[in-house]
Amino acid sequence: MTGVGSDLDMSQGGSVDPDQKKEVIGSSSNFWIWSRDAGWDLTHPSSLEAEPLRSRLLLDCEISNVAIDPAKTALLIIDMQNFLMCKALRVDTAVPAMLQAQNASVHYGIPAARQTDIQIIWLNWGLTDRDLQTMPPAMLRVFGWQANSEAVDYGISARIAAANGRNDFISCGEISRGTGLGADLGKVVLEDGTSVDAGRVLMKDAWNARLHGPLAAAYEEGRRAYRPDVLIHKNRNSGLWDPSSGATEYLRKEGIRTLLFAGANIDQCVMGTLQDALSAGFDIILLKDGCATDSPNYAQQSAEFNCCRNLGFLSTCKALAHAGSRCQR
To answer: What is the pTM of this model?
Structure first.
């Protein structure tokens, strides 16, 4: 294996040893080390000559396993808010999937991050009136209108199954919800019979924009952790769309290199943030059991498939917990 350090030559795409047992890809400031036996080393050492990190986490993933440095890693939990998850606001069948993802994070992902001192970042919608004034019409349409169809995917899959060569389009049209971004939801009655003012849709500090149930309790507990939890608001599907956003600036300031993703919806806000993170040079690991969506199942399957290799790595909250139990501190 040739010495690389700060003089890493990536002109041929990487540095390879004669026995094909290890390969380095990337640049002198951002490189991974692949080995046939161990998979990918994402610990970002200062040089190839550096000793393997004692406290690194060995995380099982689909296709290839990875090693990560907890000090350079953050768990992003995206949009697990009352607006998306509370049964008083959601009457559709998506709620069980959301609660399963919540349970995986609460029982496995979050405790594992705490145990290994991985930074936990709660990345939530939290709008201001100024945000509403500059919100693109595409985003306003998503929250303010709905397809005039009761089919789970507007009839797209049924049309594909019955395809006969014609280029017919679904023509159900759309109708206004009347409760788009910033709209007042009024009072709602919770399962225990209490009434709360849900507030304006996804506005910062409104009840509907707060973390849901046990996740709120987990955040409060995490504020007292050795590495305190951080809550950051966003104003688009992606929390990293703007290089000057709070999330982007925080990650850069703290020297975070590797991101673990959980949250909802996996195919919208989670993947939007994930893809912007990938383009910005972060390592990507999706924790599939900590994610959910109210889209059809194939939307989650597509996200998981692409994170197996095309966009990063695919693992689980349970695997993170197992890695934590093996970690040397």
So the answer is: 0.92
